[in-house]
UniProtKB/TrEMBL annotation:
GO cellular component: plasma membrane
Pfam families in alphabetical order: ABC_tran
Domain ABC transporter residue range list: 14-258
Keywords: ATP-binding, Cell membrane, Membrane, Nucleotide-binding, Transport
Protein name: Polar amino acid transport system ATP-binding protein
Membrane topology field: Peripheral membrane protein
GO molecular function: ABC-type amino acid transporter activity; ATP binding; ATP hydrolysis activity
CDD domains per record: ABC_HisP_GlnQ
Main location as per UniProt: membrane
InterPro entries reported for this sequence: AAA+_ATPase (IPR003593), ABC_ATPase_HisP-typ (IPR030679), ABC_transporter-like_ATP-bd (IPR003439), ABC_transporter-like_CS (IPR017871), MetN_ABC_transporter-like (IPR050086), P-loop_NTPase (IPR027417)
Organism: Rhizobium lusitanum
Gene3D superfamilies (UniProt xref): P-loop containing nucleotide triphosphate hydrolases (3.40.50.300)
Compartments where located: Cell membrane
Length: 262
C-alpha cells in the first residue's frame, strides 16, 4: 500500500456527542448525536417543540448543555476538559470560539441605527481587529454574494424582510465562519420573499460552506441538503440522504410529520 492509499482522517466540523438539555424538569434534548463533515449541508427537520432551536443554540453555547459534549472543528465548545471533568470557559474564550460560528435567526437582528455596510463590516473590525478599509471592501463583496450590490448605504427600515435577512447572512459571513447555523431563516418572511433568501443559501452551499439548517422548506431541503436529520421530542428519529428520508421515510413519526407538511 502506498502512502496515498491511506486517506487522512477527516475530522468533522461538528461533532455532537450524547447531548442532553433540560429546562427544570422538562427534558428537551435526550441524547443527540450528530456529526457534520466539512462542506456538508444538513437540514434539521421536525415538529415544533422537538428541540431543534435548543440544539442549534447548544452548538454555539448560547444554551448550556445539561450533559454531553460538542466539538466544532475539533475543539470542545464552551468548556475545558480537565481531569475528566468539564469546566466552563470564560466569556472571552467563548466569544473567541463563537467568531467561527455564524448564526442566522428567524428574526433578522440588524442594528437599526446603522446602515447596511456598517452592519456587515463592524463585527470583523471590533472582534477580529480587521482594518476598516479591508472590512468595508469585504462587506461590498459580500453584498454582491447576497444579491444586494449597491445597497450598502440603506438602513434596515428601508429594506424588505428578505433583504434584511440577506444582510444578516452577509453579516455572519463577514466573520469568515467555519460553520453556519440557520434557524428557520425564512419563517418570518412573506411568501414572495422566501425564494431570494433560499437562493443565497443555495449559493453558499454550492460554494462549500458547512451548514446546519433548521427549516420547513422541504423542496429546499430536498435539493440542497446532503443529509436530513429528523428530530422529534428531543431525539433524532431518522437521518439519511435527503431523497431517502423525504421520499421513503422508514419511521412512522417521520411519515406522519411529512404528511402534515403537504
Ligand atoms: P423547536 O425549535 O424544535 O420548535 P425548541 O428547541 O424551541 O423547539 O423547544 C423545545 C422545547 O423546549 C419546547 O417545549 C420549549 O417550550 C422548551 N424551551 C425552549 N427554550 C426554553 C427555555 N429557555 N426555558 C424553558 N423551556 C424552554
Ligand atoms: Mg425553533
Amino acid at each position: 500500500m502506498s502512502i496515498q492509499d491511506i486517506s487522512p482522517a477527516v475530522s468533522p466540523i461538528v461533532e455532537a456527542i450524547d447531548v442532553h438539555k433540560s429546562f427544570g424538569s422538562l427534558d428537551v434534548l435526550k441524547g443527540i448525536n450528530l456529526s457534520v463533515k466539512k462542506g456538508e449541508v444538513v437540514c434539521l427537520l421536525g415538529p415544533s417543540g422537538s428541540g431543534k432551536s435548543t440544539f442549534l443554540r447548544c452548538i454555539n453555547h448560547l444554551e448550556r448543555m445539561t450533559s454531553g459534549r460538542i466539538l466544532v472543528d475539533g475543539r470542545l465548545i464552551g468548556y475545558h476538559e480537565r481531569g475528566g471533568a468539564l469546566h466552563e470557559m470564560s466569556g472571552k474564550e467563548l466569544a473567541a470560539q463563537r467568531r467561527d460560528i455564524g448564526m442566522v435567526f428567524q428574526r433578522f437582528n440588524l442594528f437599526a441605527h446603522q446602515d447596511v455596510l456598517t452592519n456587515i463590516s463592524q463585527p470583523p473590525i471590533l472582534n477580529r481587529g480587521k482594518p476598516h478599509d479591508e472590512a468595508l471592501a469585504r462587506a461590498r463583496e459580500l453584498l454582491k454574494i447576497v444579491d444586494l450590490e449597491g445597497r450598502g448605504n440603506a438602513y434596515p427600515y428601508q429594506l424588505s424582510g428578505g433583504q434584511q435577512q440577506r444582510v444578516a447572512i452577509a453579516r455572519a459571513l463577514a466573520m469568515n465562519p467555519k460553520l453556519m447555523l440557520f434557524d428557520e431563516p425564512t419563517s418570518a418572511l412573506d411568501l414572495e420573499l422566501v425564494g431570494e433568501v433560499l437562493n443565497v443559501m443555495r449559493k453558499l452551499a454550492a460554494d462549500g460552506m458547512t451548514m446546519i439548517v433548521v427549516t420547513h422548506e422541504l423542496s429546499f431541503a430536498r435539493e440542497v441538503a446532503d443529509r436530513i436529520v429528523f428530530m422529534d421530542q428531543g431525539v433524532v428519529v431518522e437521518e439519511g440522504p435527503a431523497r431517502e428520508v423525504l421520499d421513503n421515510p422508514s419511521r412512522d413519526r417521520t411519515q406522519a410529520f411529512l404528511k402534515r407538511m403537504h
